[in-house]
Amino acid sequence: MTDRAADRARDERQQLTAALRQVAGGSEQALREVYSRTSAKLFGLCLRILGDRSEAEDALQEIYLNVWRKAGSFDPQRASPITWLAALARNRAIDRLRSSGRPRPSEPIDSALGVADERPDALSQLESGEERGRLMNCVSELEGRQAQAIRSAFFDGFSYFELAERAKVPLGTMKSWIRRGLIGLRECLER
Predict the structure, then answer these.
(1) Which of 71, 62, 88 is nearest to 26 (CA)?
(2) How far apart are the first and last CA of the chain?
(3) What are phi and psi of 128, to 5 degrees?
(4) Left, alpha or beta for 147 (phi > 0: left; psi -120 to 50: alpha)?
(5) Contacts 24+ apart (CB under 8 A), 5-8
(6) pTM: predicted TM-score of the whole model, two decimal places
(7) CA-CA distances (angstroms) from residue 60 to 43, 81, 89, 115?
(8) Is residue 37 within 8 Å of residue 82, measured between CB atoms?
(9) Does the structure show a pLDDT above 70 at 126?
């Protein structure tokens, strides 16, 4: 990653962090800014999980209502703004899928690529940067089952239950693999 690209990624992260702080203070303009910077990616994530455009649109609306209510709980020391927002989106989409009783669509995540616009955003800048490299190195240091479970849960949007079914292990085992993997990731990233 070039110094300019790293600077842009850092600036984007700082701007989103500042906007989320302003949202926590009740700024509707800041919420509009967060929406314009992140909605395409979050919509793509929702569409990937839900497999239905209308459901994804409804989920997206709920996500930004949640952002409005919970922006004060965002902690930039624990996660980047886009990571926090993606976690909200993933959880909301999975909740909607569970409550609908529909089976989970099984399209690959690449099917969501055509949904988002082509402008560089915070997530794509971070993915191409040093943070992504560090994260991928740390994931590769994990035990195989833990690494695969974390990739599937956090990058592909599968629920713990779905992962346990796919691996043919009890749900508690899957949760333990992911928990131990996340602890290993945190230790690796803190080095």
Answers:
(1) 71
(2) 21
(3) -90, 0
(4) alpha
(5) 5/125, 5/128, 5/129, 6/129, 6/130, 8/120, 8/125
(6) 0.55
(7) 6, 16, 7, 13
(8) no
(9) no
Separation CA 17–CA 80 (nearest Å): 8
Q: What is the pLDDT of residues 17-62, one digit of tens each?
A: 999 999 999 999 999 999 998 999 899 899 888 888 999 999 999 9
Residue 81 contacts residue 122 (beta carbons within 8 Å): yes
What one-letter code names the amino acid at 39?
S
Q: Copy the structure tokens of residue 3.
A: 């110094």
Say how far residue 47 (Cα) sits from the centre of its chain: 13
Higher pLDDT, 13 or 113: 13
> Which residue is it, tokens 């395409």?
40
CA–CA distance, 157 with 48 (Å, rounded to integer):
8
Residue 81 is encoded by which pair of tokens?
């703004």
